[in-house]
Write a structure and sequence with these properties.
Helix content is about 75%, strand content about 0%. It is mostly helical. The radius of gyration is 17 Å and the shape is elongated.
């Protein structure tokens, strides 16, 4: 991964905090009892909610780049 400039890192941090706030809002209270249950829940939410959308974004960008290179 390339180094992220400080300005973009600040934006990323802001969005991560907001994402975490939303995910926590819809997390059952019993999943917030201790570090272990929080970690398991966060991993589950990342796999189910975050990763597919990030992956889709990367795929779309790569597909668009491929189309532009092939003159489509």
């Amino acid at each position: 991964m390339l180094s992220i400039p400080q300005e973009d890192q600040a934006i990323l941090d802001e969005h991560i905090r907001e994402t975490a706030r939303i995910l926590r809002k819809y997390t059952a209270p019993e999943k917030l009892k201790d570090f272990e249950t929080i970690e398991v829940e966060v991993r589950k939410q990342i796999i189910e909610e975050v990763a597919p959308k990030v992956g889709e974004f990367f795929f779309q960008k790569e597909e668009k780049k491929h189309q532009e290179n092939n003159g489509e």
